[in-house]
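Two quick folds needed for the group meeting slides. Do the first one here.
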Amino acid sequence: MSLSASAVIKQARSFYTDEKIAAARKNIETHSWAKEACQEAVAAAELYLQDGHDGLWELVTTQNLPRSYGVNQVRGCPVCKKDIDRFGNYPWLTDSANAPWKVTCPSCRTVFPSNDFGAYYRSGIDEHSRFDPARADRSLLTNTLYPDRDENWCVDDGYGWLDPGHDNPETRRYTFIAYYNHYHLWYGGRIAKALEAFSQAYLFTNDSRYAAAGTILLDRIADVYPDMDSSVYLWKDGFRNSHGLTGLGKIVGSIWETGLAASFVLAYDALFPGMDSPEITAFLSKKSKQYPMLGKKDSVEAVRRNIEQGILMQVKPAIEAGQILGNVGMHQSALALAAVVLDHPTFTKEWIDFLFETHERKGRPLGNILTILVNDVDRDGHGDEASPAYNSGWLGNLKLVADALSGQGERVPLDLYDYPKFRKLFHMLTPYVMLGKYTPSSGDTKRAGDPGIIGSADLYVSGFAKTGDPLLARFAYFLNGNQWEGLRGDIFTDNEAVLVEMKRAVDQHGPFEPGSSNTTGYGFAALRDGKGAFERALTLYYGRNTGHGHKDTLNIGIYAYGMDLSPDHGYPCFADGNYERKRWTINTISHNTVVVDRSPQVNQIVAFPHHFEGGAQVQLIDVEAPQVYPHNRLYRRTTAMVRVDDETSYLLDLFRVKGGSEHLYSFHGPEGEALAEGLQLEKQAAGTYAGETIAYADPEYDMASESGFNYLYDVERDSSPPSGYSLDWKAKDTWGVKSVSEDVHLRLTMVSAVDEVILAQGEPPQNKPGNPKSYTYMLARREGEALESQFVSVLEAYRKQRRIMRVEALAVKSEGEPSTGCDAAAVKITFANGRTDYLFQALHSDKLYVVDDFLEVKGFFGMCSIVNGSLTYGYVCDGTLLRAGDRTLIDKSYGALTGSVTGFTKNLSLENEIRVRVEQPLDDIGVERGYIYIQNDGIRNAAYEFTSLKPDMDGGLVVDIGDVTTIRAWADKYDFSRGYRYDLQEGAPFRIPLSYEWRAEE
């Protein structure tokens, strides 16, 4: 596929429309932020103009110079070794303007390489304007910086310095020049920054100087781009690139190449009108005479043709070859931009059709927009990468596709902004907001517990402008600190008109305030209570544990007093196949869940919620995960949040496991000192939890075992622990979120019997600046054949003084006999103010249980409170009876609505419903909103939140599930006409658990 050598097809700008440019210039005239953006672009462009046209042209390096995003990620700096890790993944410093071809260690400040590579590189430029190592003067490859070292020390000829003290190719090579070329010339470096500055400055000012400089740079990139192939520089030799371990790429690895390719395409569209400057052809004609292999560049047509052939026409073939191929939306947005900017009568339509059709390379999507949105985006709007950070990229990348194709008329099969699953992507980040300032560090996301919310206000302003969805206006307003000043879309948006409509939406629907929520398609529940400084929350994750997710199904997180009190580890040291990531950071053992038989969880899509209650005095989440340990009969967690008063709540946590021979409950609190009460701990003499003779991160152990136990050190044990022991963490304000130091604690009291308790230290990734040095882990272990475990604990966050005085387990009976196994549990909690809470939970809601010869419960969960001897509160979930002493608090005919599904919405829609036939009397429903749980094939769950139940004409109920679809996937992703597959079917039984409260004043 090629364009005619005699015709230039593109005639005008096609992405940066006149409307966009007019909006930008209007914003620059009327808004200080836009004026500042313009000034920054102009200042940057003026700085790069100092290089001159020759300097800009010579910035562009050719294929014969390696690229690598790491200098030596395994061993660190040749001088200070691993000390450099505290400065992050890509720590090396450069000053490409004043110290070209040099990198500096931020720890020891040593400069590398020791030779003058610039002189060596220039000596190797051949008659075709390419760098030829065989031609270069190797006498220049000598140490000139460090006379106390030998002449070869840290000398780099472009292919790295091989440390003679090591023979492993992956850890021996230091790639100073390859790193500089990759990260400080090309990807995010001087070339990319200069091109962006010229493009933006020209768009904003129409100054032809910027168009000339940008065109010369872009034309030179087009000269070399077709031959770029990073695959010849191998990972195993130390040349690391972001390519998902495929080894493929062009300038850089295939994943990051998507952004480079898109930036080149956009630059062409931005600079296009200014390319007819005689200054450009005069300079490039001179270069083409100096290097005849470049071809003639004596006309604007020739220059444009070179850019179209050398860049735009490379995009689709490189995607098909895997050289430009990233995460979802990355290469699709590059191709969408290339199609639109090329504006070709044939290729543009073909490329757009390719985007919407299903095309794959070794299982990775090439186009597949509709397949991705229907099959891979879940009903809550999340992608399949598990990590909130990575999933958020789906929205940004696919939005760029939508924006590129907007206005293309009949050349586009559909407007993505009208497509329900695309619009649902905008809702993805809203459930994650914790305490108004955290996105959980779940999966490969952020650092360990650092504050900050993923999402940019301008993206949601733009989304609202396209969809009118009130939630987007409210979320944008929230992200801007709940203020209108400074809130805006991008510089190409008519902000005044959009803000008028946004204000109307916020006035009508109120500011964004996330309550308790359960996104069942993704697998994330959040229980929230309190306001302001006293807001507190619990999270439970039960979604994907693959991709950029961790093996952390049923992991809980705790937030209170403005702090993340049990932070996940977040992004690993390196997101590749290294052992630290596999055996520790993403492994089950490092998370707040249960490890069975010393093995990590196996892959799952999403677990199965059975109960969720939010907003009352008692809130709870109950989830079963049968797939993560397939040989187990049960793997289920129920966690309740109980309000004490406006300032505090506590948690009752029950984790049940049936099957296997060893169950290890793992929990860590915040960074800070942890004190044990009720334990007699003996310190292990040496080694790790894997054994006294097994060292930290022992590679031989890593190869032999998947447990990750060798990453837990400073081990202490109590081999005969009592029930009722506690661990109290005094929280360190790791991230400085508190303006005034406060004595904040998290306390866990375990009331169930275990065989052994272990305390140990475990580290979050240490190459992420600011991460804690370590967390104190509490491991509660049980062992036995056909083991059944019921880990019952109470967690409380408090300041200075505890509200709870005592936590104790209570005896439970059923039919006059003690309840055995792990089917039921009860606790009694005594407070300093005279309040006593009795809490009960059972797996069988249809059985009558007696707790401590005082409380009778028939239901899934029951509770009562007594204050100074008087009953004040009662609660039962999915049950019919709650009796305390001789007083009946709750007595109902049924604890759940049951029946079968009769129909449901079967097309993609913003309005969806499920129709059901109910076994209970319709005139006694008494519930307006909640969750419906439908039995299905077990591949994904069929649990849906509903906002109303209404009688239908056929004697059943209509369950309104809003904009959440029942569609699971296409029936055939290669033939959309065959329709869909669903997460439920007609005739399937369902349950809608009900809850009841009793208060003394009633």
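Then this one, please, same format:
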Amino acid sequence: MANHVSASFLTRANALFRKNLTYQKSNIWSNVRLIVIPFYLCVLLVGIQVLFDTQVNNSPDNRCGCRCIDEKNGDGKCERKSCGLQYSNQTQASFCALPNPPPLLSLLQIPSPETRSVDRAHGSCRRTGSCPVTILVTGNNHSLGATLSQNLLDTSFTVNSSDNFFRNLAYNVLGTTSEADYTNYYDPGIHSDLPIFQIQPRCIPPTNLSFSFRQSPVTFHKEVRCVQGLVLWRNNSVEVNDEIFKVYRQGNPEEIINEVVAAFDLLDTGKNNFNVTIWYNSTYKGNFKLQDRRVKYVRVPRSVNLVSNAYLQFFRGSGTKMLLDFVKEMPKQESMLRVDIASVIGPVFLTWVIVLLFPVILNSLVYEKQQRLRIIMKMHGLGDGPYWMITYAYFLVISTLYIICLMVFGSAIGLKIFRFNDYSIQFVFYFLCINLQISLAFLVSSVFSKVKTASVVAYLYVFGSGLLGGSLFQFLLEGLSFPRRWILVMELYPGFSLYRGLYEFSVYAIKRNLNGSDGMKWKHFSYSAMDEVFYIIIIEWFLTLIAAYYIDRVSSSGKDPLLFLKKVFKKPPSPQRQRHGSTVTIGMEKLDVAQESEKVKQLMLEPSSTSHAIVCNNLKKVYPGRDGNPPKMAVRGLSLAVPSGECFGMLGPNGAGKTSFINMMTGLVKPTSGTALVQSLDICQDMDRVYTSMGVCPQHDLLWETLTGREHLLFYGRLKNLKGSDLHQAVEESLKSVNLFRGGVADKPAGRYSGGMKRRLSVAISLIGSPKVVYMDEPSTGLDPASRRSLWAAIKSAKKATAIILTTHSMEEAEFLCDRLGIFVDGRLQCIGNPKVLKGRYGGSYVFTMTTSSEHEKDVEMLVQDVSPNAKKIYHIAGTQKFEIPKEEVRISEVFQAVEKAKGNFKVFAWGLADTTLEDVFIKVARTSQAVNVFS
């Protein structure tokens, strides 16, 4: 390795970084399309918000009602516009200004008659509206409970013309079937046309009364109806709870199950303490949302007042009462509906936008894996460290720019989910999310080998995260019955942790839009659930990155990722099988192969020797048996030494083990036993250092479709530590040597190259930087004769200071390029030598060919027998015959004389005498070796 300095970590990282930038530049329109998608979704959100503002927020129904006043001549023209409660319907009233909110009657929530459960015998009460309602009482003291139960309900209803109207009504137990509205400024129980109900122990005719009262500026006329109230004692709170719950289970119609108005647990109430638990109905009509329970409290004060008065009357007499005149809301300004629909649906859209980066990253990683680009980069010296650092940083920079563009554009067009929350906490959240996303892409890429499959799965993850987040996760998040610990478990799924953070941003943006409160700030971090989201993302990021790196390192070394578990259960190898294999190997060795083995043994005693670039010592590869098949021995004890400046050619039939040998030498698979030294470095221990001085031309072209030939060579040249003018000069020379320099071919994308041009580029890549060792797998496949000759000249010129191992099926290529040849059959070298020696050793025959008419075939056979008694017929068809004639039995002049003599006896159409070709040698050795192996 003298005169050859390997590239440093930063040099290799710089090479990959420049390649990625070039690749990014060549795919600029893909990047534009990627950025347009979040812009489009943001614009769509704004469009939805504008439409919602027009049709809902700014609708006349969602603001205080107004009326045009004609004050002059009655011509119908609007001289003055007046707004207020008197002009508002039920929906509009909640938006009106209320500087002095009106007092509200304190009413109980009473189930409507048609919804009360009764038995069949009393079913007619639904038609008459006379079904009773129930008040349940329980406690520790039965006698006290019975007394208080009698004091809960009054037996009369009176309304007089007293100025203190609400004080007058406070003596009565009133209720309504109208559910409380979403604001306490407006109570449908008073403003609607429905009657008010007086709950009495018995309803004595006449049961219907009416009265009028004024709540400025409106006068209300209300009808009062009597409804029977049953005050029932229950033994304990469990019975009360079960009876209340029967309403939701739609109990047996044979039972009398009256819907409950209220229930009281007196607990340990006595003379010295008053301790009561009250059940009240806040889930009427199935409204379970937490934020809607607040408005139900307007129905609670009357329940508290009932039991309080009953307790006072028990101690102080029937004339003692704690009156509840009314309930009243706080003053408010006029308002209008301000629903930020973009923030409401924003988490779903933004989840899609951010997770959209995942398939882009995953497809890029799987594409390099599918096209084997990662492997070829590693073979040319790009280590795992530079690859991980630059690739991760590359995706992180792209993702960060993507997120910044999203935040800037979303804020610029007015999305409040961006504008109303602190930008620093948003950026940190998004930054953590994209880091987790990149790590997850690295981990998931180890599972897939096809881009199409990975793409389908990735986009299912994208849309599934948004849809499941909006329809399932948010529903469970807002529900009170779902355990909080399971929410934490669900957030371990990265899509849900992302959605949870966006949901918190959405909630704070909606709150600020409604009441002007602060958006999400760092001071809200600990109690907004963002702290648990951050912790989950950081921990998952750390663990995912470690798992991805471990699996990548183990997989790239050819090991099973679960190897550390399998070692415990590993079975010892069978000694009998090993002895059998070694015995056969020794028995099959030829003299030249044995001499090569002895040479290797001598070289192994001097491991520091640099005279031979490649030394393979008893290299073996056994693939484990699968599906009941026995183990396959692909390479059986290969010993080989290749000095610098030599091109060694490996010939052999398909399945002989050549590819397994090349894979071991290039680090794709580990040898089962034996070892090899490349520039005195062990391939089992120092493969990363071996890569720095190695070039590879694989059987299939591994190229980036959008990079040009020049850009490929610049990248690989930098990996070989070429810089500045030396780099550009080497690139120019490489392009010229493989005939890719003229006509602007060098600056065209490799995807537009023909098969032959790609092959020439692959050869140029393997030779750039003058590597000390080069492996070429059928380098001239698919080339025309002229291009093949030009390529051979480039390879022959490059081998002066390089050891080349070349596999080929072209005998012409082997003779032209190779200094030595080895014929490889059934995992063994059968012979080694230069082409002339091999032809002389295995080709000791001439091939005689003659074509005549069919009736003279016997004459040809007699002619050959006369010339050489030991000649063998090797071919015969339609008058054409071929014979092998041993060289030691005949002279060429004798063959010519015999043919001339034969021409006088019968007509000869054609004849020829040829020496043995390398192809004949290959066929002969392969057939002989295969026959011996079958026999063995």
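Slide caption for protein two: The first helix runs from residue 9 to 26.
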